[in-house]
């Protein structure tokens, strides 16, 4: 499994040679073994990349993210086929029972609110207790939308009463970038396991190709919320990218955030396929 996140931020050409990504500029040539790369971020629109390299990156399951002219993530490379048994996986996914999906979504929303309470406890312990009560009120499939009510309370306490998630301020810029990085990691693992990102358990937007990823990533959003509090605009993207390898605890063990996402997703798939909701593994702690 790769461990490097590679960012290409200036005018250059990327090629493939003998299992290496070859980075070329006017002044230098560098090589990175593809097996070492977990995620490749093309941050500049002045980068050219060969189809041979793209094909090899897909083959070796490297997540490739492309950025727009403002250097914000705008798209990513996803293979048509992931796991060698993707036909079986898609059949499983289509047959997931509605009542089990509702139970899983209830657990996901409860955990998201618990994680929000954990983040809020760093600044406002008393307010965090109020937020924790929202988690206890989540019903099957969250039909009363405790998630939405909790989010409004949480964001206004965490970032101030005037904060709006739809604004274009500094905090929202940080959040959007961090959430996009998270989403790409969920997309990567879901596709690698042979499932379809389009078919969610709760999100059902026909124009969203990542409904399932959006469902599964919800309990991980508060991790990003916490990390952006003390971020400055100076080099914030690299700092957010570095958090993908941040140590967290899940299932009683210390893991990187990337590996924790994989453990969590696998447990969700097990719960959806067997009905054993108790199998779900959530983040236990992080700093």
UniProtKB/TrEMBL annotation:
<keyword id="KW-0378">Hydrolase</keyword>
<feature type="binding site">
    <location>
        <position position="203"/>
    </location>
    <ligand>
        <name>Mn(2+)</name>
    </ligand>
</feature>
<keyword id="KW-0540">Nuclease</keyword>
<dbReference type="GO" id="GO:0004520">
    <property type="term" value="F:DNA endonuclease activity"/>
</dbReference>
<keyword id="KW-0051">Antiviral defense</keyword>
<comment type="similarity">
    <text>Belongs to the CRISPR-associated endonuclease Cas1 family.</text>
</comment>
<keyword id="KW-0464">Manganese</keyword>
<keyword id="KW-0460">Magnesium</keyword>
<dbReference type="InterPro" id="IPR019855">
    <property type="entry name" value="CRISPR-assoc_Cas1_NMENI"/>
</dbReference>
<feature type="binding site">
    <location>
        <position position="218"/>
    </location>
    <ligand>
        <name>Mn(2+)</name>
    </ligand>
</feature>
<dbReference type="GO" id="GO:0016787">
    <property type="term" value="F:hydrolase activity"/>
</dbReference>
<dbReference type="InterPro" id="IPR050646">
    <property type="entry name" value="Cas1"/>
</dbReference>
<dbReference type="InterPro" id="IPR002729">
    <property type="entry name" value="CRISPR-assoc_Cas1"/>
</dbReference>
<protein>
    <recommendedName>
        <fullName>CRISPR-associated endonuclease Cas1</fullName>
        <ecNumber>3.1.-.-</ecNumber>
    </recommendedName>
</protein>
<dbReference type="GO" id="GO:0043571">
    <property type="term" value="P:maintenance of CRISPR repeat elements"/>
</dbReference>
<dbReference type="GO" id="GO:0046872">
    <property type="term" value="F:metal ion binding"/>
</dbReference>
<keyword id="KW-0255">Endonuclease</keyword>
<comment type="function">
    <text>CRISPR (clustered regularly interspaced short palindromic repeat), is an adaptive immune system that provides protection against mobile genetic elements (viruses, transposable elements and conjugative plasmids). CRISPR clusters contain spacers, sequences complementary to antecedent mobile elements, and target invading nucleic acids. CRISPR clusters are transcribed and processed into CRISPR RNA (crRNA). Acts as a dsDNA endonuclease. Involved in the integration of spacer DNA into the CRISPR cassette.</text>
</comment>
<dbReference type="Pfam" id="PF01867">
    <property type="entry name" value="Cas_Cas1"/>
</dbReference>
<dbReference type="GO" id="GO:0051607">
    <property type="term" value="P:defense response to virus"/>
</dbReference>
<keyword id="KW-0479">Metal-binding</keyword>
<dbReference type="GO" id="GO:0003677">
    <property type="term" value="F:DNA binding"/>
</dbReference>
<keyword id="KW-0238">DNA-binding</keyword>
<feature type="binding site">
    <location>
        <position position="147"/>
    </location>
    <ligand>
        <name>Mn(2+)</name>
    </ligand>
</feature>
<dbReference type="InterPro" id="IPR042211">
    <property type="entry name" value="CRISPR-assoc_Cas1_N"/>
</dbReference>
<comment type="subunit">
    <text>Homodimer, forms a heterotetramer with a Cas2 homodimer.</text>
</comment>
<dbReference type="InterPro" id="IPR042206">
    <property type="entry name" value="CRISPR-assoc_Cas1_C"/>
</dbReference>
């Amino acid at each position: 499994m790769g461990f490097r996140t590679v960012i290409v931020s200036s005018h250059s050409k990327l090629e493939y040679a003998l299992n290496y990504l070859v980075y070329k500029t006017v002044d230098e040539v560098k090589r990175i073994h593809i097996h070492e790369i977990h995620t490749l971020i093309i941050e500049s629109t002045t980068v050219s990349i060969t189809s041979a390299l793209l094909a090899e990156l897909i083959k070796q399951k490297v997540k490739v993210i492309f950025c727009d002219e403002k250097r914000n993530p705008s798209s990513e490379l996803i293979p048509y086929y992931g796991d060698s048994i993707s036909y079986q996986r898609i059949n499983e996914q289509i047959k997931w029972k509605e009542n089990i999906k509702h139970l899983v979504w209830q657990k996901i929303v409860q955990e998201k609110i618990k994680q929000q309470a954990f983040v809020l406890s760093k600044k406002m312990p008393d307010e965090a207790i109020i937020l924790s009560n929202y988690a206890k009120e989540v019903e099957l499939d969250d039909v009363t939308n405790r998630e939405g009510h909790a989010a409004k309370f949480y964001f206004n306490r965490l970032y101030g009463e005037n904060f709006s998630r739809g604004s274009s301020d500094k905090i929202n810029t940080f959040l959007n970038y961090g959430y996009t990085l998270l989403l790409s990691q969920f997309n990567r693992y879901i596709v690698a396991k042979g499932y379809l990102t389009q078919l969610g358990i709760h999100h059902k937007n026909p124009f969203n190709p990542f409904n399932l990823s959006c469902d599964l990533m919800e309990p991980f959003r508060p991790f990003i919320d916490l990390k952006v509090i003390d971020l400055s605009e100076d080099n914030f993207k690299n700092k957010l990218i570095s958090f993908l390898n941040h140590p967290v605890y899940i299932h009683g063990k210390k893991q990187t955030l990337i590996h924790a996402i994989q453990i969590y997703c696998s447990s969700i798939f097990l719960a959806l396929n067997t009905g054993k909701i108790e199998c779900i593994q959530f983040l236990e702690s992080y700093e």
